[in-house]
Predict the 3D structure of the following.
Amino acid sequence: MIKYLTFSVSIAFISWIVGMIITALLIKTDFYQKKLQSLNFIKNEKINEMIGLAPFKWMIMHSFFKYFNPKLSGNKKILGSELVEYRKEMTTAELNHLFAFGFVVIFILIKIFNGLYLSAGVMLLVNILMNLYPSLLQQQNKRRIDRYLQILHQRSS
């Protein structure tokens, strides 16, 4: 079991690099600008509560993971003028994790195909925690930023 867990965590860390590369390749494309920037899987906050996104957010904010992306660190106040740039950074981080999730799914499918179900299950759980949940958290934060931007836009009109 420990070897499955260490392998899964290793693949998850490697997947982050793969996710960053894929995002970097797509960032200048029309597909990224038109489709990926506004990607939103779960729009209902009740569903986010049900899947445990709030405790996950607390865990990220109170662990060493908060230092992994200093541009998105929650330790400083964000000015209204910085929200658009902050949203771009958040979208990039979200897509890095989403592509990383897809990369690990390939390994999971190979494990299932080879009949290694326990290994695939451990890898799926680690992948959800290290890639899917961070992506969902970034989407939730993007929606909050969008609401703030809308309020600022209404005030300036």
